[in-house]
Amino acid sequence: MGPAYPRPPRTGRAGPGHPGPGGRLGTKKDTQDLLGLLRDASAEVKKAAHDGKCWDAAQKDVKLEKYKDWPGYERGLPQVIQRYCALWGRGT
């Protein structure tokens, strides 16, 4: 997956902080999908930050349509954007 992520356990399951519906544990694919969302969000917010749109305009303009059907997308996206505005909005 990448150097920042250790190899998943042999079971192929990841124990998240909060299990999913029905107590479901995450899979390697779930982890890869989440990492994809974070990478995509970082790239989009980086563009917005370089255009001077962080914070309020980024909250309105940045949408990750690829993930719109994920549970919690509407509720969680503003927090993800805030996190990356805190990083990229500083000119880093």
Describe the structure.
With 92 residues, the protein is mainly alpha-helical. The chain has a domain at 35-92. Helix content is 49%, strand content 4%. The longest helix has 23 residues, at 28-50.
Jot down its keywords:
single chain, 92 residues, mainly alpha, 2 strands, 49% helix
| Coarse morphology | elongated
- Strand order, sheet with most strands: 1-2
| Helical content band | 40-55%
**Largest sheet features:** 2 strands, antiparallel
**Beta strands, count:** 2
Low-confidence segments = none
Tell me, rounded to a whole number, the average pLDDT.
84
Q: Total helix count?
A: 3
Give the termini separation: 24 Å
Overview in brief:
With 92 residues, the protein is mostly helical.
What is the element layout, followed by pairings?
Elements: E1 13-14, E2 26-27, H1 28-50, H2 56-61, H3 73-88
Helix pairs in contact: 1-3
